[in-house]
Write a structure and sequence with these properties.
Layout lengths: L10 H9 L3 H18 L4 H11 L13 H5 L5
């Protein structure tokens, strides 16, 4: 059984703790907060956009994709 405890933190202390989280953890926190808010009331358009952006992956593209069909399918197009 999980034990619940509360810390007496002011807003600035909370922000400092959130800044220490990894980018992935910060994105998960955003999703969690917006999901909880969405359960309590309807999300605004801006909140929905934030939730969508938090769920997106931020992986770099190693190289642009080729425009040639042969590179994609390995055939001569017949």
């Amino acid at each position: 059984m999980a034990t619940t405890f509360y810390l007496n933190l002011d807003y600035d202390q909370l922000i400092e703790l959130v800044v220490q989280l990894s980018e992935e953890q910060q994105q998960e926190l955003i999703v969690r907060l917006l999901t909880q808010r969405g359960d309590q009331r309807s999300l605004t358009a801006d909140e929905k956009i934030q939730l969508l952006q938090a769920a997106q992956l931020h992986n770099p593209v190693n190289e642009p994709p080729s425009l040639r069909r042969e590179d994609w399918y390995g055939d001569d197009g017949r």
